[in-house]
Write a structure and sequence with these properties.
alpha+beta; globular; 383 residues
Length: 383
């Protein structure tokens, strides 16, 4: 993709150096999915070294529904939709990246049994089972276990902690479990490669947001950390959950407390989504401090990619942009200088084809179409 001309701030005469595009990404097995408001592009490198490219026009669930796009409601809808689409893409990439033509591929007895008894339905069944197991494991690790620890502490003679202290302990335990989980899986070879693709995805989006031509050399210069990453979103969810749970009285039963916490997830996700959306579009000291922990956690989930991974990311982004005829829906945001590898660039400029009388610094003047499309930018990759 050729380098695009930067729009000019008519108030100051300066060029707009950055923008926020409404494309979100997800790292896959040997590939990347880039998703825009109109659909997604999935690019996976096959064992033969070629690129398998799949594009599909598929608007995000709830698009056009005013209630589902309402602030604090849209966060839960976006999260559920991205989980479903992302999980399908992840399984699909696993099938492509390890094909029957790969000399090192040897199907297990379980794989052969599944293929024999389920045939074409195998992928759907496996995905459903995996989702159920993942949900059960997540509830057990992030809800039941922290509650059991807090209950155990309060069972100590003479200890009767206030609800806010219980919520804080529960939240800290949840964060420690999450960090331990990331540290554990990052030692796995396949997951390390996924994290490298994660880094390639971030770098490529940064390159596009800075109006640079999408080449391997240009992309490599940019940060592998991004303020709109799903890792940052999950961290915000855990922090906000501490505040929300502090308002919920202890029901005297571990499982009732767990059910109550699960019931509040839509509220927490909605607040976290709005925070991430705001933080990704504004640049000031308070916002930088608030989003710093999320960026720091990306040190666990991103790695420096090789040139082949960057090539995959460039193709995926280019194909996604074709679907939505970018940059028509880029957000109008303040421009800031390019960031180093340790700090992702912040803020954004208006699109190339924006009206001449619009200022780069005018963050509230975006059209309804641009504003709605930008909401997809927070779709996080899940490794």
């Amino acid at each position: 993709m050729a380098k695009q001309n930067k729009p000019t701030d008519t108030k100051s005469g300066a060029s707009c150096d950055t923008r926020i595009c409404s494309v979100g990404g997800e790292a896959l097995m040997e590939g990347i999915m880039m998703r825009c408001p109109s659909g997604y592009a999935q690019v996976v490198r096959t064992p033969e070294g070629t690129l398998s490219i799949e594009t599909k026009r598929q608007p995000q669930f709830g698009a056009g529904n005013k209630f589902l796009e309402f602030p604090f409601v849209r966060g839960t809808v976006r999260l559920a939709d991205s989980l479903i689409v992302g999980t399908k893409a992840l399984f699909n990439s696993a099938e492509i990246s390890v094909s029957d033509n790969d000399p090192n591929y040897k199907p297990s007895k379980f794989d052969l049994w599944i293929e024999k008894h389920l045939g074409d339905k195998a992928m759907g069944v496996i995905m459903t089972i995996s989702l159920i197991l993942s949900l059960v494991l997540s509830v057990g690790l992030f809800f039941v276990l922290p509650q059991l620890i807090v209950t155990g502490i309060n069972a100590i003679p003479g200890v009767d902690l206030p609800q806010i202290a219980n919520s804080a302990i529960e939240g800290v335990v949840r964060i420690l479990i999450f960090l331990g989980y990331l540290a554990l899986i990052s030692s796995m070879k396949d997951i390390r490669r996924v994290f490298m693709y994660h880094g390639a995805e971030h770098k490529t989006i940064h390159c596009y947001e800075h109006y640079d031509e999408l080449t391997v050399d240009n992309v490599r210069r940019y940060s592998k950390h991004h303020p709109r990453c799903g890792t940052a979103f999950l961290f915000v969810v855990m922090v906000i959950s501490i505040l929300i749970h502090a308002l919920i009285p202890n029901l005297g039963n571990v499982f009732l407390n767990v059910l109550m916490r699960i019931a509040t997830l839509p509220i927490i996700a909605g607040i976290a989504y709005e925070f991430n959306r705001f933080a990704g579009k504004h640049d000031n000291k308070i916002v930088r401090i608030l989003r710093a922990p999320g960026l720091l956690m990306q040190r666990f989930t991103t790695r420096e990619p090789d040139d082949g991974m960057i090539e995959v990311a460039i193709v995926a982004l280019s194909e996604a942009l074709k679907l939505d005829e970018m940059p028509d829906y880029s957000a109008k945001e303040p421009a800031v200088p390019a960031a180093s590898d340790d700090e992702a660039p912040e803020g954004a400029a208006e699109p190339d084809n924006a009206a001449d009388d619009t200022s780069c610094a005018d963050a509230t003047d975006a059209t309804d179409n641009a504003d709605n499309a930008d909401e997809n930018a927070e779709t996080t990759e899940r490794a």
